[in-house]
Design goal:
The chain contains 12 helices and 2 strands, in the order H-E-E-H-H-H-H-H-H-H-H-H-H-H. By secondary structure, the chain is mainly α. The protein has one domain: Glycosyltransferase. Helix 4 runs antiparallel to helix 5 and helix 6 runs antiparallel to helix 7.
Length: 373
């Protein structure tokens, strides 16, 4: 992964601002709303996206000079567009084409490809989500093109699966989860292109390899990667490793009608919620409060985003489980409602410096809570 910290760049912050299209919040709002509404979450998301746009540079098409993190910022915008298009349109109608046009060469890369397969696949997932909300096939074709770079080398590591990087230094969870998620999503959107089962076969292959890899430990947590002799390296679970697999499994259930994929996703999601939340139910990364890298600042939103995806798209979970997911999203979003600056830091519910990574990560949970409320 490549994560960068840079001085905020100003490009579209003024012209691409959102307006609160839902009723304004009450003049006096308690510190923690007893019963926050969808309107509260949407209006807070509008404020948060406007703040996020202060990091956007229309000349490069990316936010705060951060590469893979910008793919996640784009995904958060597309998720918001999916459920609240009228609120999102003032930004997305300009950002989607601008980023597609400008970002591929902004940092000296070509076609969203660089030296890290996980970076590339974050962009593939982002463009799939943009396709879902625009129905413009150029975005889906961009995702397919990115996917081919990783597909060409899948299975060539000593352990099988996909390398994290093109220097072949590490086989880890995130690159392989992203490969699985991208293949499964493309299978649902291009089931017969370029030929029948082209992407589905990749998804099944990647799924079966991941289940055999040993990276899911006995506590149903995803460790970070494999040792050189292809064993679980025992490295700390991270929220984003616990999150990407959830969306991948949910997509596979859509394709196949096999609810065993959903059942595993439910198990992993509940294990992640139990492990990564504090006594108040707030999601915490192990590096908090003061040792999170710019990469780690992005992680929590990925977990929240995929919890929302499951809650909205999975038919096989019990009402009790669904309510746990909804409660999780609302609890974390409620913590953000107390922040009057709309600059969201690493700890949700506390005043901390904001970056593009922490801002877009927090927006994932606000959008998630709004979508399920």
């Amino acid at each position: 992964m490549l994560g960068f910290r840079a001085t905020p760049l100003f490009g579209l912050a003024l012209t691409f601002a959102l307006s609160a299209v839902y009723p304004a919040a009450a003049a006096v709002v308690p510190a923690l709303p007893k019963r926050a509404s969808q309107t509260d979450y949407v209006n807070k998301a509008v404020d948060g996206f406007n703040q996020m746009q202060s990091y956007y540079d229309d000349k490069t098409g990316i936010w705060q000079n951060a590469w893979w993190n910008s793919a996640n910022a784009l995904t958060a915008l597309a998720d918001f567009q999916q459920y609240f298009p009228k609120a999102a349109d003032p930004i997305t109608t300009k950002v989607f084409p601008a980023t597609l046009s400008q970002a591929p060469t902004a940092l000296g890369y070509t076609g969203f490809l660089n030296d890290f397969y996980d970076d590339e696949l974050w962009w593939a997932l982002a463009w799939i989500q943009v396709y879902d909300v625009t129905n413009d096939v150029k975005y889906l074709d961009t995702a397919s093109s990115i996917f081919e770079d990783a597909k060409a080398v899948w299975g060539t590591t000593p352990c099988g699966g996909l390398w994290w990087d093109k220097d072949h230094t590490y086989v880890n969870a995130i690159a392989n989860e992203l490969y699985l998620a991208t293949a499964a999503k493309l299978a649902n959107r291009k089931p017969h292109i370029p030929n029948s089962g082209y992407y589905w076969n990749e998804a099944v292959k990647a799924h079966d390899w991941f289940m055999r890899s040993g990276m899911i430990n006995s506590e149903n947590l995803v460790n970070d990667g494999l040792t050189p002799d292809c064993k679980n390296n025992g490295n700390s679970p991270f929220t984003y490793n616990q999150g990407v697999i959830l969306g991948a499994l949910t997509e596979m259930a859509w394709s196949s009608g096999d609810n065993s994929y959903n059942d595993l996703a439910n198990t992993l999601a509940l294990a992640g919620m139990a492990h990564f939340t504090d006594k108040d139910g707030i999601l915490r990364e192990p590096c908090e409060p003061d040792s999170c890298s710019s990469d780690q600042q992005q992680f929590k939103g990925v977990f929240a985003r995929n919890i929302q995806f499951m809650a909205q798209r999975t038919n096989s979970m019990t009402e009790e489980t669904r309510n746990k997911f909804i409660h999780f999203l609302q609890t974390n979003a409620n913590a953000l409602l107390t922040d009057k600056t709309n600059k969201f830091g690493i700890i949700w519910g506390a005043v901390r410096p904001a970056t593009l990574q922490t801002q877009s990560s927090a927006l994932d949970v606000l959008v998630g809570a709004a979508a399920v409320s």
